Amino acid sequence: MQHCEDLSDTEIYGALHGVKPQINISSRHSEMMTIALLDCIAEKNPERMPQMWETMSDHFDTILQCKWAANMALGREAFLASAEAALSLFVDPESRRKVEEALAAGLDPPFDALRTCMQTRIGSKIYAKYALKVQLLSFRGRGQGCGAAHLPRL
Question: Which of 5, 7, 124, 146 is the residue whose CA sits 20 to 30 A from 33?
Answer without folding.
Answer: 124
